[in-house]
């Protein structure tokens, strides 16, 4: 009828263009929130749940649900990347089905060989997330980032971390700065993370891979007696006189 709005998409047959993306766009949009394909009701993840390296706890001050990740608790040498991906997708789709959420990643005392799956595997898992989950992820709080982590992310982050993830990372060098975005009590902080935070507070150069006191000599109480060679020399003179 005259006045009705309509659009026409003309595809030349000799260009070998697949028309399905144009015809099924609405169908794809409707399936964004369908997490059934990522849930694994027949797979038992109780062993990974007991490790508590991935848990949902509380919310930040912006109202985003918190997905807490403790790097030290993750056994990279035991859990396969494929099973880790299934577990992450199962956890997110079953516990963070709607609304904004954030990630609090604790990098404290993480060993590269034992606790890190690698940036390539993390990127692979992130790419497997449904599109709306990537959009709902607001911030990644990176607690106690080491020098290696900063260099890797700064060098390769823009290329490996797609979907705006690179710009969502917020470094948190001390726990006191975390409380600017998350109220105390909203998230459980393991004791070893607190202890590591205390160490960094007294030796801040450790953040950059520099250990000013590798033998922890500053913690040894000073002796009231001196046994230096000069003192012994003067003592000998007094004895001979």
From TrEMBL:
Domain of life of the source: Eukaryota
Boundaries of every CRAL-TRIO domain copy: 47-198
CDD domains from the UniProt entry: SEC14
Pfam families in UniProt: CRAL_TRIO_2
Cross-referenced SUPFAM superfamilies: CRAL/TRIO domain
Protein name: CRAL-TRIO domain-containing protein
Record lineage: Eukaryota, Viridiplantae, Streptophyta, Embryophyta, Tracheophyta
């Amino acid at each position: 009828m005259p006045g009705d709005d309509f659009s026409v998409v003309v595809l030349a047959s000799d260009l070998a263009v697949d028309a399905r993306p144009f015809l099924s766009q609405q169908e794809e949009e409707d399936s964004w929130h369908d997490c059934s394909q990522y849930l694994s009701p027949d797979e038992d993840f109780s062993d990974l749940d007991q490790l508590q390296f991935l848990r949902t706890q509380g919310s930040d001050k912006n109202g985003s649900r918190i997905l807490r990740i403790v790097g030290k608790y993750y056994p990279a040498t035991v859990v396969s990347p494929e099973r880790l991906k299934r577990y992450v997708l199962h956890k997110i789709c079953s516990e963070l089905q709607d609304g904004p959420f954030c990630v609090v990643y604790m990098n404290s005392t993480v060993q590269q060989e034992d606790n890190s799956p690698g940036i390539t595997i993390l990127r692979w898992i992130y790419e497997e997330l449904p599109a709306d989950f990537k959009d709902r992820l607001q911030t990644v709080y990176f607690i106690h980032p080491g020098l290696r982590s900063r260099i890797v992310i700064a060098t390769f982050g823009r290329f490996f971390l797609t979907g705006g993830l690179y710009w969502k990372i917020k470094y948190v060098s001390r726990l006191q700065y975390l409380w600017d975005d998350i109220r105390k009590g909203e998230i459980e902080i393991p004791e070893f993370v607190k202890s590591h935070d205390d160490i960094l507070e007294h030796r801040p150069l450790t953040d950059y891979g520099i250990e000013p006191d590798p033998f922890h000599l500053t913690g040894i109480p000073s002796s009231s007696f001196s046994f230096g060679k000069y003192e012994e020399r003067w003592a000998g003179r007094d004895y001979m006189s």
